Structure formats: C-alpha cells, structure tokens
Amino acid sequence: MRYSTIAVVTLLYFSCGFAQVDSVKRVKYSPEFQFSSGLYLDFSQVRDNNPIPSVRIISNADPLDFNFFRNLIKNKTIGYFDEFGAQQEISTTNIWGYCQDGKIYIQYNGEFNRIPIIGRICHFVADVTIIDSHYDPYYSDYYNGGYYNPYYSRPYSRTTKTREMRQYLLDFETGKVLNFDRESVQVSLMQDPELYDEFMKVKKRQQNDLLFFFLRRLNEKYPVLVPIR
Q1: pLDDT of 20
Q2: Using a CB cutoff of 8 Å and minimum separation of 24, what contacts does 154-161 make?
C-alpha cells in the first residue's frame, strides 16, 4: 500500500511538473524566501531550487513529517524516483544536502550544517576533526607496563582527535567551499573592482574585522536570483 501510494503521487508530480517547466520564474533572494523542501544530490539542484521532494523518496516515514529529512539522512542509503520515474539509490555520504522548512543544510566534514547566510557568497559553520600526534623518542616500555631497561627505549607516538568549529564560505555560482578568512574574502571581492580596491586599501590588521561587512556589500550588489517552483 505504501509503495502504491508513492507511485501514484509520483506520477501526478511528473504530469504537473513537466507542464510547469516553461513557467518557472526567478525572484531576488531575501531572508524571508523559502527554498523548496527536498533532497539535494548536487549543487546544481540547490542553485535551481529543484530538490528531490519527499513524495519521490522511497521511505516508510510520513513525507509530510516536519523531521522527514532529518531522519532520512540517518540512513546509509536513500532510495528515490528520478525525473523519468526510474527507481534509484544513492549513498547518504554522496548527497550534497537537503532543505527542510525552507532552510538549506549542506553536508560538509561528514555532517549536515545549516547555511544561515544565503547570498552570492554564503556563510556557514561546521565542525572539523583535528588529529594531533605526540612523538616521544625516549619512551620506555616501563611506562607501558613492561620492564624498565635504562639502555633501551623505543619511540612512542600517541594520536589524539579533537573537534573544532570552523567557518566556511560557499560560492553560490560555482558551489565551491572556501575557508572563511582574509584571503578567501579577497578572492571573492575580485569580481567587483570597486569593492576589491576599497578592501585592499584597508590596513591588513583591520581587514579581518571587516570581512562580514564587505561580504554583505558584495551580496547586496550581486543578489541571488532563485527560481520559484
């Protein structure tokens, strides 16, 4: 019964969707804009505001549930019907992200993180695993439960992992993710000679304090046009 319902809804979706292809229009993004809910296989679907909706995803969960996509990404694989109605399956680690309640979540560093600032250059935060190795060339077996030998010791390396929160930028034209730092902002501003020159005239020790200021101005000059579907 569940899969029959999915098939019927999917066929209705396709018959309506193809009729509306030519009627898609674009609007300037604003913080009030609601992206279409669904699963993003790649960044092109984000830019086109054209994710795979819940009615095309093979799941026993309620597609209208508010937490549908948050629960869906807990699975190792996700089954869905493509634009031709053919059944497909993809590893969850290979999807770009998803949209729920109009908000975009990007998969980065193995986790899904919301992108709160949308524009020509987006901004988001994500955790990153830091691996640190400590090397002791004078380590002795005595400290590892063995017998102490003052004339013999073997090198010892200990690895620790910690989680740190980092800031990132997302270029909404290319889908490229950059570290949020002075160099990346400088590269992003190159598309606007006026803003770039103004930024480069600021003393380097002050540039880091003005990164968000210049990004906001860049986004205001080059607004993102999002399709309405």
Answers
A1: 45
A2: 157/133, 158/133, 158/134, 159/131, 159/132, 159/133, 159/134, 160/131, 160/132, 160/133, 160/134, 161/129, 161/130, 161/131, 161/132
Please give the residue range of the domain that contains residue 224.
115-229
Beta carbons within 8 Å of 105's beta carbon, 6+ residues apart? 69, 97, 98, 99, 112, 113, 114, 115
In a domain, 66, yes or no: no
Examine residue 171 and state whether it is found in any structural domain, yes or no: yes
What is the tally of structural domains in the chain? 1
Number of residues that this document lists for the chain: 229
Ramachandran area for residue 195 (φ above 0: left; ψ -120 to 50: alpha; else beta): alpha
pTM: predicted TM-score of the whole model, two decimal places? 0.79
Cβ–Cβ < 8 Å for 170, 177? yes
- Report residue 40: phi and psi, to 5°: -100, 115
pLDDT digits (tens, 9 = 90+) for 61-85: 999 899 999 999 999 999 999 999 9
Contact partners, residue 29, CB within 8 Å, separation at least 6: 118, 119, 223, 224, 225, 226
Q: How many CB atoms lie within 10 A of CB 1?
A: 5
Residue 41: inside a domain: no
Residues 6+ apart with CB under 8 A from 115: 103, 104, 105, 106, 122, 123, 124, 170
8 Å CB contact between 126 and 109? yes
